[in-house]
Amino acid sequence: MPELPEVETTRRGIQPYVEGHTVIKVIVRQPNLRWKVPDEIHAMEGASIVSVRRRGKYLLLECALNSKQQQRTGTAIIHLGMSGSLRIVDASQPPEKHDHIDIVVDTGKAIRLRDPRRFGALLWTTDDPLKHKLLRSLGPEPLSADFNLEYFYQQSRGRSVSIKQFIMNTHVVVGVGNIYACESLFRAGISPKRVAGKTSKKRYQKLLQMIKAVLSEAIEQGGTTLRDFVQAEGNPGYFQQKLFVYGRANLPCLVCGSKIKQITQGQRSTFYCSHCQH
DNA sequence: AAAGACACCTGTCCGC
DNA sequence: TGCGGACAGGTGTCTT
Fold first, then answer.
1. Mean pLDDT of A101-111
2. Hey, which CATH number is domain A4-131, 3.30.450.30, 3.40.30.10, 3.40.50.300, 3.20.190.10?
3. Which residues are CB-neighbours of A121 under 8 A, at least 6 positions away?
4. Measuring CA to CA, which residue among A147, A84, A155 is closest to residue A115?
5. Cβ-contact A215, A4 below 8 angstroms
6. Which of A139, A204, A229, A241 is paired with A180 by a 20 to 30 Å CA distance?
7. Domain A149-272 has what CATH class?
């Protein structure tokens, strides 16, 4: 479920409900996520949420802690893994199966974390979250100026992995998940099997453009579902209509009509059109 | 430093 | 209808 656009959509969805509000209680029904939810997470209780930010697919809830003298902060780090979602609910609404955590705020609303597979995470840090072990070595944000041709191309030199695995590497750039990797390569006309280090600068130029275009389009699409974010259940389905290759094995290419292929790269499925991509 | 395999866990879908 | 197996939007960790 969560690729970067959905994480960003989630961020925008919860922000107005929690920013500036005080956390009443953190209810942990199931602490065994990817890592055990630390007991220190309860430091959020009584604190106010000052910002809801995102770095890669990590959401950061920065909290102002109520210590006597000095102003201290702490940050909840949330990752949605493969199957996680955050929804705004009335705190009184009974949790369903896999609703593992509620962060209840002073308006009676709660952020509810649901995650059937439990690959997600909820962590707590009182240091700079960007220096956290999980965040400090992440590559640039894909939509920022730091993700540019010079950087992208230089990073690729000497790499023997496929270009698809290369763009999915979070140390190279964050936020390019399996769907967008496939879709960006299709739009750029580049075979996913191409060797990263042997691909021309010109191709990287095109790929860079397409990654940015696909991600920003998807964020915009996500934006249209923001309206019903609160009551929405399950997948918004906003961007399925724009998928050219992902999940379309054996179906005709929407551009040229030839059969979409499915292969495995790095234990992940790759979909591509061998006629349109070289 | 880089690459590849594996791990975590549950739900769903497909073939028999 | 039931069962086994493959597969799923992610990424840290361990080994080579």
1. 98
2. 3.20.190.10
3. A33, A34, A35, A77, A78, A79, A81
4. A84
5. yes
6. A229
7. mainly alpha
**Integer Cα distance of A85 and A234 in angstroms:** 9
**pLDDT reported for residue A32:** 98
Question: How much of chain A, in percent, has pLDDT values that exceed 70?
Answer: 92
Place of tokens 């942990």: A28
Which nucleotide lies at the shortest CA–C1' distance from A266? B4
Q: What is the pLDDT of residue A69?
A: 63
State residue A228's pLDDT score.
Answer: 45
Residues 144-183 of A with CB under 7 A from strand B: 158-161, 165, 171
Residues 178-197 of A with CB under 7 A from strand B: 196-197
End-to-end CA distance of chain A: 29
pLDDT of residue A234: 47
- The span from the CA of A213 to the CA of A133, in Å, is 30
pLDDT tens, position by position, A13-69:
999 999 999 999 999 999 999 999 999 999 999 999 999 999 999 999 999 997 766
Q: In what order do the strands lie in the sheet with A85-90?
A: A23-28, A99-105, A109-114, A85-90
Asked if strand C contacts A178 at the CB level, meaning under 7 A, the answer is yes
